[in-house]
């Protein structure tokens, strides 16, 4: 029985690491195909070509900036909405929940096309703020659902105890609720960052090509037909969410009751 989890872990790591290793090998070599019979010609030309792109660094910093702002807005909206759905008596609750989840059911391109006209009139088209707003459409419903389920697991009685003992709103939020919501915060962080960074169509529509993000740079690289450059760009694209998630995880560790001796020292 003990060998089955190990076998599952080995197979999972194999299917996860093998494509990454192949991608890394291709990025550090000249274009190579499997049945060619020749070995790998190791070089750094793909990364030199990638890093020399003037649009890469701008798109990277813009994507990270947008991703963090979208994440913070998702956490704020998700926490307060999820708590309200759990604690506030509300008639027609299933209809409200269905309405909040409706952006997932409606094609996001249809929403973007409709909002584009409004954003042009409001002066938000071709701006970073407009892109941030449109990125909330495919991410906020997931955040609300995740935090709602977490608050339901915590229970209304647990949320009422700090209020009865005289705790203030923000003290209760930062010392009791957020530490209990750590799994939800991690899930929302992962989903939000990945979804925001991967948006191409709605960013192009609302940003108008002026707000440059990584997907807008990635697709033109497809025209090069250089497998090494594409592999290098893919690894670059994959590292950014990992770095962002690591930074958010470091912030989560600052919350009370984290397993850090210096954090819990009194």
TrEMBL record:
It is a multi-pass membrane protein. The chain crosses the membrane at residues 64-86, 98-118, 124-144, 188-213, 233-257. The keyword rRNA-binding does not apply. It comes from the Bacteria. It is found in: Cell inner membrane; Cell membrane. Keywords: Cell inner membrane, Cell membrane, Membrane, Transmembrane, Transmembrane helix, Transport. The keyword Oxidoreductase does not apply. Residues 60-248 form the ABC transmembrane type-1 domain. One of its GO terms (biological process) is transmembrane transport. One of its GO terms (cellular component) is plasma membrane. Coiled coil: none annotated. It holds the Pfam family BPD_transp_1. Belongs to the binding-protein-dependent transport system permease family. This is ABC transporter permease subunit. The lineage of its organism: Bacteria, Bacillati, Bacillota, Bacilli, Bacillales.
